[in-house]
Amino acid sequence: MTIFDSFRKAFGWNQRNLQEMATFEGQGVTWDPAPAKAGEIVSIHYRGFLTDAGSQEIYLHYAFDNWNTPVQTGKMERQANGDYGIKIQTAGTALNFCFKDSENHWDNNRGENWNLHLQS
Question: Phi/psi at 9 (nearest 5 deg)?
């Protein structure tokens, strides 16, 4: 049992509580600041199966409010710790995103994408 499992059990935490801690547990995705707010610049960090597979270029593919805004793709920069990172301006009530590499391999969270609630 992970520490997050212990918190969930002890305090009845759910996914939104974990979003306030700036992590999608065990999925290699973090962000700051946390909690994320609409209208802010947010840094998204990724170290998932694309990096594990040796991808050298990673892109954030994203939109807002359940993919109801124009979809954008931005190249992420490799960080000193091996993660990839990008800063984006947020809008709306939710940031929806996934990742791809230069070979068009995708990490879309097993078809669920990542959906980050944005506080107003």
Answer: -65, -45
Q: Which residues of 71-95 are buried (b: 16+ CB within 10 A; e: fewer)?
A: eeeeebeeeeeebbbbebebebebb
Return the pLDDT at 120: 86
**Contacts (Cβ under 8 Å, ≥6 apart) of 105:** 50, 53, 55
Torsion of CA 2, 48, 60, 91, to 10 degrees: 0
pTM confidence score: 0.80
Domains (range + CATH), the chain: 3-117 (2.60.40.10)
Residues 6+ apart with CB under 8 A from 50: 58, 99, 100, 101, 105, 107
- Indicate whether 17 pLDDT > 90: no
